[in-house]
Write a structure and sequence with these properties.
The chain is of the alpha/beta class and about 700 residues long. Helices cover about 40% and strands about 10% of the residues. Strands 2-1-5-3-4 form a five-stranded mixed beta sheet. Strands 14, 15, 16, 17 and 18 form a five-stranded mixed beta sheet that branches. The longest helix is centred in the C-terminal third of the chain and has 21 residues, at about 615-635.
């Protein structure tokens, strides 16, 4: 109405100015003269004063339409998206942000239109986080409750057509709250990406002051720490130091340097063991002495290229090769090698036990070490052990402690929990072991400790946990309760009384007493009391499932958490065929005499002092002692052979070469000795009967648990 009134008044004013008395003016006839323009302007200005909002919108209407027509007719929201590596119900720690960002995950701020559809949101996220492509949309958004530290995550439900921009804006409170993207099934790889990876292409790049390498600005803080450590390692030592590996079991180690043990690696040319910081200098000299010919041992990984400018490792392998290689054992080796490369620059983990402590105190020290929460890269760091009060050092001590820890995991720790001399983590029969139902152990998170111990032993090439129930293994690794129940048997129920009662269901007819006992058990476990119409086989499966799986869900959840924290979970989920290697049957880890005999490098007499005996006599003594030892191995049981390997090399894992030497005897009290680091067993030459050698060997094998001191 205001516009119509303005137009009518303007025309009237213009008409009045077009009278005959003024028709001689040249600009009046076409309504474009100064008078008409001024009149129209005065009317518009008067109306604007009366209707300011109406005329402002009118003036800008066409301009706004032109601007909006060129863009999407919706609002844009900037929302923080935090991509997590796997299924979880907790927010990540603040210390996880940089490592996840280095892996191409973590937090970034993205812009979404309100009318963005689910497919557009998925495509935009996959362009920003390339690793999300392998999930193929199998993820959902979560948001955290208020407060600090780690908080519970709650799922953000989607509409019938999925997520949209308006829903994300509302869930994030207009971008004020970070949304967490959580995979529903898979675990994303969290190993660090190279700095030239596609995920970092959009980030600003800056050169590192220390090494000159161009790195993304967001990654510079993470790179700077390891870069300074590498520079320190290269400058701390200028002279090559060679250590005789044969005698490393009896070397004394200074107290002030034991916590700073440095990783050792093999020279790819001469195959000798050196400190990692010394190896580049030795390798250059060794290479010159061999006229530049580099001979690489096919099974020995070379030093990391982070220590020196040149890599002396074997031919390079793809980071995904462990997923495609046919042999499961080879897949484990490749995965562990890749995992250890991630932790190579981490501080060495040192586990110290005291030989003067009681058994309970040593077990508590062992548990305390593995109860300590560490990052994945820290569990993959170099690992060394020592026993205070014992002269032995080196890899043999590490093997001995790892083997003892896995053995205690099966047989029990000597701790007084619940008025018991031994606290067992697993119970039941061989090949049917299940986690114990102790609430004290679950609340103390000792099963998380057990998972870390199992994963850490695998990383360091140690023994595996054998004899676990197949149902428990499948429930633990596959997460499928239905699949696990197919492997259940009566032996999986660890309680003898419960097993007997459940076995009544296999009978055609039960006595009144048996029926009463079965009914009491069903009521105790909140199952319906069986009647004549009850399906006995179905009830049998339900009771076994409850006895071996359902009531152990907390323990298995903690075991899985411990395995994930060591970094081996991607291997389990991506390669189900390696699970039998991680949790084998007892029969599969049984050691036979033939396995030991095939690995023995048979001896030559090693003189300790001048002797008047002829060479023929020495050879005869060597042959006699070697023959007696062969007889000892052939007649030994699997358990005794396992003890023999622990005395010989430190653990029961068979080695490719077991070196055997016969040394000149210093008297009748001269006992067999071993250098576990070099896999070397030394037998004195005074044995002439099998009974004498067998008696001394049995005494030596019983001393394994006491340490490395002389008998």
């Amino acid at each position: 109405m205001a516009h119509a009134l303005a137009t009518a008044l303007t025309r009237e004013l213009v008409g009045n100015t077009s009278s005959p008395s003024t028709s001689s003016c040249p600009n009046i006839g076409n309504n474009s003269g100064p008078l008409a323009s001024n009149s129209s302007t005065r009317v518009n200005q008067a109306l604007k004063r009366q209707f300011p909002n109406l005329f402002q919108k009118s003036d800008l209407k066409k301009g706004k339409q032109r601007i909006i027509a060129s863009t999407r007719s919706t609002k844009i929201s900037n929302i923080g998206i935090y991509v997590l590596p796997g299924p979880t119900n907790l927010t990540p720690k603040s210390s996880d942000e940089l490592p996840l960002a280095h892996a191409g995950l973590g937090r970034r701020v993205l812009s979404f239109f309100d009318d963005s559809r689910h497919e557009e949101i998925v495509s935009q996220l996959e362009d920003e986080f390339i690793k999300l492509k392998q999930l193929k949309g199998r993820w959902m958004f979560h948001k955290a409750s208020g407060g600090g530290g780690q908080r519970k995550l709650s799922i953000i439900p989607m509409d019938a057509e999925g997520y949209n921009g308006k829903l994300l804006r509302s869930a994030s409170n207009n971008g004020k709250i970070v949304l967490f993207l959580v995979p529903l099934q898979e675990e994303l790889e969290t190993s660090p990406l190279p700095f030239d990876a596609e995920e970092f292409a959009k980030m600003p790049q800056v050169p590192c002051v220390t090494c000159g390498i161009t790195v993304p600005l967001q990654m510079l803080a993470l790179h700077a720490g390891s870069c300074r450590k590498n520079k320190k390692n290269r400058t701390d030592q200028t002279e090559p130091i060679e250590v005789d590996e044969d005698d490393c079991d009896t070397l004394e180690e200074p107290e002030d340097t034991i916590e700073d043990l440095e990783e050792r690696e093999y020279c790819p040319i001469c195959q000798k063991d050196f400190l990692k910081s010394v190896l580049p200098y030795h390798a250059s000299e060794c290479c010159d002495s061999r006229e530049g010919v580099l001979e690489i041992h096919p099974d020995m990984p070379g030093p990391s290229s982070t220590t020196s400018g040149t890599s002396y490792s074997a031919e390079p392998r793809s980071t995904e090769e462990w997923k495609t290689v046919g042999d499961p054992q080879k897949a484990v080796e490749l995965f562990v090698r890749q995992l250890k490369q991630v932790g190579v620059n981490q501080r060495t983990l040192v586990l110290t036990l005291d030989a003067m402590d009681t058994d309970e105190e040593r077990d508590m020290s062992l548990i305390s070490f593995y109860k300590h929460k560490r990052e994945i890269i820290q569990w993959a760091a170099p690992f060394h052990c020592r026993i205070q009060g014992d002269a032995a050092v080196g890899r043999g001590v590490t093997r001995h402690i790892i083997s003892s820890a896995i053995s205690k995991l099966k047989q029990g720790f000597k701790m007084n929990f619940g008025n018991a001399a031994v606290t067992a983590m697993f119970e039941g029969e061989t090949d049917h072991l299940v986690p114990t139902t102790s609430a004290v152990l679950a609340e103390s998170e000792l099963f998380v400790m057990a998972g870390r111990l199992i994963g850490h032993s695998l990383i360091n090439g140690g023994p595996t946990l054998s004899g676990i129930s197949l149902a428990v293994v499948h429930a633990l690794t596959s997460g499928s309760k239905e699949l696990a129940t197919t492997y259940l048997s009566l032996e999986d129920c660890p309680d003898i009384d419960h097993r007997e009662i459940i076995g009544f269901l296999l009978k055609e007819e039960m006595t009144e007493e048996e029926t009463s006992r079965l009914s009491n058990l069903c009521m105790e476990w909140y199952f319906p009391v069986p009647t004549k119409e009850t399906n006995k086989l179905l009830l049998l499966q339900q009771l076994l499932t409850h006895a071996a799986i359902t009531r152990l869900s907390v323990q298995m959840k903690h075991l899985k958490r411990g395995l994930k924290e060591t970094g081996i979970w991607p291997l389990i989920t991506s390669r189900p065929d390696v699970v039998p290697l991680l949790f084998p049957r007892e029969s599969e880890v049984e050691i036979t005499p033939q396995m030991v005999l095939q690995s023995i490098v048979w001896p030559h007499l090693k003189k300790r002092y001048d002797s008047d005996d002829s060479d023929d006599d020495l050879e005869a003594e060597t042959a006699l002692v070697a023959g007696l030892f062969r007889q000892f191995v052939e007649e030994a049981s699997s358990d005794k052979l396992r003890e023999l390997l622990r005395f010989w090399v430190g653990w029961e894992v068979p080695c490719q070469e077991l070196k055997l030497e016969v040394v000149l005897s210093t008297g009748p009290n001269h006992m067999p000795t071993s250098s576990t680091c070099s896999e070397r067993l030394r037998l004195p030459s005074h044995y002439t009967t099998y009974q004498a050698l067998s008696a001394d060997m049995n005494v030596c094998l019983k001393s394994v648990e006491t340490g490395f001191g002389l008998i």
